[in-house]
Write the structure tokens for this entry.
Amino acid sequence: MDVISVIRTKRDRGELSPEQIDWVIDAYTRGVVADEQMSALAMAILLNGMNRAEIARWTAAMIASGERMDFSSLSRPTADKHSTGGVGDKITLPLAPLVAACGAAVPQLSGRGLGHTGGTLDKLESIPGWRALLSNEEMLNVLDTTGAVICAAGDGLAPADKKLYALRDVTGTVEAIPLIASSIMSKKIAEGTGSLVLDVKVGSGAFMKNIEDARELARTMVGLGTDSGVKTVALLTDMSTPLGLTAGNALEVRESVEVLAGGGPADVVELTIALAREMLDAAGVKDADPAKALADGSAMDVWRRMIAAQGGDPDAKLPVAREQHVVTASASGVLTRLDAYGVGVAAWRLGAGRARKEDPVQAGAGIELHAKPGDSVVAGQPLMTLHTDTPEKFEYALASLEGVYDVAAAGTDFTAAPIVLDRIA
Ligand code: URA
């Protein structure tokens, strides 16, 4: 087998054979195929696509590049959730303990933020003492004793994807649907969950800007999961405006705790409950009521145990940024648009996110929103509060907030987009 013939096959719109796929993934992981050769192949895939059989084989080869985890010793069925990423998307934080409180086990391998979307591990690391890095044994132990664990994926899980994702990031090849689907699903299948709910975000703050691309990505991932024996369902959800009222690490933890205490913004509560119902249904847990588990404190009990089991202090005061800057409404009327992408970039520029993998993040940095689309606003009232430890960042963050919102005359009819746009099973 030689790599140039594999690249030429895809360059010329051919179908890669199973042998070509197995070989190229293995050879790339071992360093026999060079980065520049894999980038040429990734670009050929981005331009010419892959069919269902090719995507399935590509995913299987990435799974085979590393270890597979096994949760069969647990007494409960497992359910996991994966979001394609958005602004203010803190849903994993209340969702994992909620689903555990309702009877499923939730092994949640999560990532860090890169660019304008936040990462679950960065958010949880704002809790003093909390540890993202667990051994496989510790992970199983936390899962067994509390019902939920949120931690970093170990280096042994789909190493081919780790290498390929880093390469795609710097070669303009992230956006290929076959590569996104196989990247996400290889990690989820290798993780060993019995069922999986995908939250595929659509809108300005998401990877997928339009619903047709999001449907194609969702169908591809649901097909891959189902073919591998993982019960997989996808919800397509709105990411045209930030979720909830906060974007930033400690700010989002605070809001998640409000949801677990039975309060919190309506959109965060609605999506958390919708995803919990799907996860419990996919895991085969009957007669559970996630809304009740939020209201009666049982989800909060699991959260406290889960945070403590990973070294965190659930009662510790969360970090607060040293400096604040308030942005006020420029006109009176109805807020009809608040753009997720602009708010996400501003939160990132304030220090909540990172530009390179190795950059640190500020726990207290981010944005608090004081109004959402559909709310009435009065000229001069606070619309957002910007938080950072480094005030020289305000100017740069404010530049990305130029034109992010519209205010229409009072009385204008406005209906917010529904949170859940479609369901694919
Ligand atoms: N998330 C992943 O894990 N992989 C992708 O390719 C895109 C998003």
Remarks:
- Residues 263 and 273 are 13 Å apart (CA to CA).
